[in-house]
Structures are given as structure tokens and as C-alpha cells.
Amino acid sequence: MEKLITFFLPYASKEEVTLTVESLQKAECVEDIFLVAKEPSDIEVGGVEWLTGDLVSTDTLKEVAAKANTEFTAFYTKTQPLNLGQSALQRMMQACEDAGAGLVYSAYYEMKEGKLNAHPVVEYQEGSLRNDFNFGSLIVYKTAALKEAIAQMDQQYKFAALYDLRLKISQGQRLLHMPELLYTEVELDTRKSGEKMFDYVDPRNREVQIEMEQVCTDHLKKVGAYLEPRFKKIEFSASDFPVEASVVIPVRNRAKTIADAIKSVLEQKTSFPFNLIVVDNYSTDGTTDLIRSFAEKDERVIHIIPERKDLGIGGCWNEAVASSKCGKFAIQLDSDDLYIDDNVVERIVKAFYEQNCAMVVGSYQMVDFKLDVIPPGLIDHKEWTPDNGRNNALRINGLGAPRAFYTPVLRDVKVPNTSYGEDYALGLNISRHYQIGRIYDPLYLCRRWDDNSDASLDINKENAHNFYKDKIRTLEFWARQQYVKNGQLV
Length: 490
Prior knowledge:
The chain is built from 15 helices and 18 strands. It folds into 2 domains: 5-190, Spore Coat Polysaccharide Biosynthesis Protein SpsA, Chain A (Alpha-Beta Complex), CATH 3.90.550; 245-463, Spore Coat Polysaccharide Biosynthesis Protein SpsA, Chain A. The relative contact order is 0.11. α9 (287-297) links the parallel β11 (274-280) and β12 (301-304). The chain is α/β, with parallel strands linked by helices. The strands form 2 sheets. Strands 1, 2, 3, 4, 5, 6, 7, 8 and 9 form a 9-stranded mixed β-sheet that branches. Strands 10, 11, 12, 13, 14, 15, 16, 17 and 18 form a 9-stranded mixed β-sheet that branches. α14 runs parallel beside α15.
């Protein structure tokens, strides 16, 4: 069989890499195997060549481009053993060729805690701009596309080169997803989905995130989706509101937490009138009675039970904002969480006027159910800057919380009627036109516990969430391209 592919994989230990090399050598289509090590090595592994560097760095990718002389090039990004499926490489190369794709990736089997499970991955979209998109650990590139993309790299990155590579390939080539399970990899990260979801805002990863933002911003400029920091002004002239601000809590079956959330709102001290709108989405666990008991004692508590029974969290928000009881500003609080002190509502409203924004996003402290701080602690989303926040928003997985909105804008935009990603879609849409205000100090305590909706998702649910957010990004990506093309910059 003709040898059509060159392999590059990271080196960590001779024992592990030998198993992978043996698996690759059994595939008759492999021409060369390069082990990539951060330091020069004199360890002998039969049938391989050594390359000093790191596959996530630009310098190393340029060396890869010089050494890859077969029709296809493959990267395996893990150090644990790789086990190729039957004719897996041939299948990936043939599909890549037939589709005229620049790269191909596939579903895989995952060996985790001694169990073998299928691990499907999602379809790549134009808006799949998040740098943590899961391609799996094995990616096959058309070498011509890889070399062309690397030749275009004019910035040096220590951590973001692979992200830069795939975005540059996507500018002119198809990224092909094969839903077949073509290999087996070992997964050592046994954390639940709710524990992993905040990795990208961990302060320890800040240097990496800065590079990722630079790569994404450069890509958006090249494809005509970059927005300059110019925004529509808001006069805040609307005056037909019963109160200055409304806190909005959508809730379903949170009898353990809703009373604490309501108390934290009613304890707020403000220089203006405010109320609390609780949208009770047909709770069955006693939540309804708890809300009613507060509403009977305090006229500021507005208890809404929607007529519709097909509402997600976003739909409940629409019910609250459409209410005649809603204030000029609508401020979020989740039914699990608590404001950090009695000055939060005052600070948020003040931020609207000071920063002339249609939406304000705060920061929050991660805590357990006992209110003890848990890692990563403060989630402040400092990657959101006035100049580039709305561009970087297409890359990251969330915009932060608590969120607050100028009600006339929110009534116009509408919230998607979903229970995941609705806030992200809303923030992207609003940021296309308006400035997003920021408060970087913690405003509320985000309680993480087993009943959080995202605490422990299986892979299919996690993929569904990621696919939906990528669809949101894609729609916004297209909208921004049209926005720029038509000159609607303010």
C-alpha cells in the first residue's frame, strides 16, 4: 500500500509512546513518525524521528510544514496510547479527499476509569469559533492545506498555534466531521461537566486566553465579521415604567433555594423603587407556595404563572419583561443563587447610566451549597474589554453574570425560548449594536450543587449544548458579516 501520511505526536514517556508507535506502524499507509518533545532526547524509539518543540507553538508548526512531505499529515495530541480502528487512517484520508476538505476528524472510543464508551463529537460550523472545540485527539490534514495555512502565520504564538491553524484552514477549506468511531483514546480527566466548564476563565490560564483572543480577532478581521468599538447611544428617555428596576427570577422546582434568593433581593437598599418578578414555571415541589407566601407579605414580589406550558428559561424571561409590572431595567438572579450584599441592584442601575450600555454583566463568586468558596473562585470575565469584548464573545463559552438589560431593548430583541444558551444568544445580539457594561467585582454567589442543570451532563447532552451554542455563534457570525458588508457599523 502506498504510504500517504506523516504522523506527529507529543512525547511524554517511552512506555506510552511505544504503544502508539506500534499501532501506527501496523497501519501500512504511514510513511514517517515524528515524536515532538520540548527538550532534545536521546531515548531510542524504533522507527521514529525527533522534533524539538511543542505542537501548540507557531515555531514548531513551521518545522512540521517543512518536514511533512506526504499527501496527508496527522496530529495526535495526547501522550496516552492511541489505538487505531480498522482501516481508520485510510477511511479518514479517503473521506478528506472525496470531500475536498482541509482536515478531517472523527468520533472515537474513550477509555475512562477502565470503561470503554463511545464519544461522539459535533459538526463543525462557521461559528464554531471556540478554541476548546473538541476534534478528538486525532486530526488528519490535507498537507497542501496545512502548509498553505502555516505559510500565512505572521504572528508567533506559544499556546494558540493549533487554534490559529484550524481557523486559517477554515477560511478556504472544509473541516470534515466523520461520525464514525475510528480510534480509541485514553481520558484521564474524570471531572464532571459542571467542574470543567469554568476552566477557560481560570486566572491560571490567562496567558493562553490572551493568545486565543488575538487569533480569533485576526480571523474575524480576515473574514469580514470583526466589529470596531463603535456603538449606538442610549438616551434612557423611556419613562412609562412602574419602577426603575425589576429583578427577574425564572424558577421551576427550587424549593431548597428559592426562599434564599427572594430574601437576597428584598434586602436590597436602593435610591429608587424596584420590584421582584418571579416567573413560576409550573413547579410541583412546593416552590409555588413559597413564592406565594412572599407575595402575600410584600407587594414588591410579583408572582407570575404563565399561561403557556411550553416555556424554557428564555420564555419565562419574555413573560417577565412583557409584564406591565416590569421596570426600566431588568436584572437577573438565578433561583439557586444569592446577591453578595444589599447594594447590588443600586450598583447595576448606576452602571447603565455611567457606561451608556444596553446590557450590564457583573461577576460572581463560585461557592458550594454551604456558601464556602470553591475553585476557580471569582469569575470576572476580564477578557471582556470595551474595545474587543463583543468580538472575543464569539470565542468564549459565556458572557458572565449577573446580567441586566435596558428593558426597551430587551423587549425588542426577545430571548430565545430555551433553557440553555439563551443568555449567550441575547448578549451576542445586543453587543452587535450596543456597548455591554461591565462590573468586575463579585455581585452574587453562584451556588454549585448536584441539582444544577449543568452539574453532570452525559456526552450526548453536552454535545447538544455545544452544538446549540455553535449554532448561536454561526447565526451571529453571519449577521455580523452582513452588518459589516452593508456598512451598518453604528
